[in-house]
Amino acid sequence: MIQLVLFDVDGTLIHSGGAGVKAFARAFASEFGVNDGTERLKFAGRTDVSLVREFFSNHQIEASPKNFGRFFQAYLCWLEQLIRECKGGACTGVLEFHRALEMLPQPPMLGLLTGNVREGARIKLQHYNLWEMFAFGAFADDEEDRDRIAAVARQRGGERLGRPLRGEEILVVGDTPLDIRCARAIEARALAVATGTFSVEELLRHAPDWAVPDLSRIPVQDLMGAD
Question: In terms of pTM, does the model score above 0.85?
Fold first, then answer.
């Protein structure tokens, strides 16, 4: 029986209308004078910290705590502004999927497993009235690597439930191959949704337990009680 469902944010729960990438670009320009800072970066499934580290490497900028601090302070300010200007919303099926989970006789705990820093995830999800759905989260503030973030999420979930969680008691929901990989890193089940940049066919190549076009396409009962 699934006791914990962990959700990715961008492309899985929401589309922010490009606000996140635009905020990255504005922060790179305003803080470091680089106007095309996002052009060489691939965002899907990555952590915010790893993306900034790659940017620093590309532009011979010291990856110091001070420079990371400068970036994220500017990024969060830009994100607060830009998310109000960009057209976005919850991905197809998210609200219905959440309601179906909540209506189960024994609802699982819901958490976040995301490459966003915590405050970035809060800004995005709160804007679309989704932040309060989740009991806790694991973020890029905790670890730079997605697989290690998954381990943090598993540990925190177990602490909240009062016992260690087995991998088969956890479901990770995400829209990229990296989400599938981090599910496997904690021996969890993986539900891949093609609401991001990858198709169902592309996601199936990475052997998730389920792959669907969106979260309206699979009954929650099929997920919760699977052996």
Answer: yes
